[in-house]
Amino acid sequence: MEAWVPAQNRLQEVKLWLAVLLACWPLAARDQFAKFELDLHNMASGSRTAIIESGRVVWRNGKITEAACEAPVIAERIPHALLDTPAPAPPGATIRQVLENTADGTPGEEVLENTVFVDALKPMARVGRLPDAVRFASHEHKALGWFDQKYDGSEILWCHGPSLLIVQVEVSGKGILALVVSGDAQVEAGNIARSDIALAFFKDVAGLEVSQRDEWIAQALDEFHRGHREASAQLVHQALDKFPELESMPDVSLLYLFAQLRLPETEASATAVIRDHPSLPTAWFYYGEYLENSKRYREAAACFEKITMHQPPWHNWTVAAARKELTYLKTY
Asked: What is the CA radius of gyration of the chain?
């Protein structure tokens, strides 16, 4: 009996420590993501968000019920034997090249956002409903059907739908980290660094080095999408004062922002983007809109005709939009 009492005491002691640890774990988890949660609050996005670490949800802000992004799901269902066969578009590319976003060597051409292309692949893919977004993001994926880019030396895979964004990054010591955002998650011009939520995830959760320049651009885009044109323009001017090279960077998201705000920097931005990406229909469209708003109608029409008359035909949302603008310009 004398030997049993100390053993029982030790057992009670272990149980007590376990209770303390279990009580502290939710608090520790909250502390781990406190900075990210604060940044989300400051963005006032209202988005529902989840963070997944090595396949396990470790933080959640609201319930996410959306299905996964269609393009990568369809891509992963394509039989491997068909990947190196001709793609529905663009001409001369294989399905694999399009799904890796390397069909013409220019990432960001938005081929993967073309619903006609994705619909053409559906008969080749195995039939089945789109999986739940959080469950889908909990698995490691190949780059097929995802946008693939580097940020601070890390490979980022991401995809998005009308009201969904999924971002995956591999972090040393943590494995695969994933962000799932349901709600208003704008991403401009195929560049995940233009999402303020994604940048907060990189900095606060993944531990990546995020540049102040990217943060300012993302914030300016976010303010513009919320209808706060004056706040967006103010952020742009502050960024240009500190980073004057922004004016001549070949960055289509900057061209979009400058053109929408009708800033004189649009001219230099358009020159840089079109010089480096002459086959980027969005660049021609954003510049055409700027010229049209500046009442330079003949130059605007030339930009829109560049889109509608291109051979081989471009498969992009700008084609229909450019035709609409040309019809409107004929009234002048």
From this structure: 24
∠ Cα 318 323 328 (to 5°) = 120
Per-residue model confidence (pLDDT) at position 22:
46
Q: Which helix (H) or strand (E) holds 75?
A: helix 70-77
Dist. CA 18–CA 279, nearest whole Å: 61
71 falls within a domain:
yes
The pair of three-digit structure tokens given for residue 189, joined into one six-digit string: 């011009």
3 state SS of 166: strand
CA dihedral 236→240→242→244, nearest 10 degrees, is 160
Query: Rounded mean pLDDT of 6-35?
Result: 56
Burial readout 54-68 (b: 16 or more C-beta within 10 A, e: otherwise): eeebebebeebebeb
pTM of the model: 0.82
- Contact criterion met (CB below 8 Å) for 181 and 164: yes
The pLDDT assigned to 103 comes to: 55
> What is the residue whose two structure tokens read 């993967």?
112
- Give per-residue pLDDT as tens, 128-156: 889 999 999 999 888 888 988 899 999 99
326 vs 291, 298, 319, 330, CA distance in Å? 13, 10, 11, 6
The structure tokens listed for 247 are: 């004016």
Per the structure, the count of domains in the chain is: 1
* Domain extent at residue 78: 46-208
67 in any annotated domain: yes
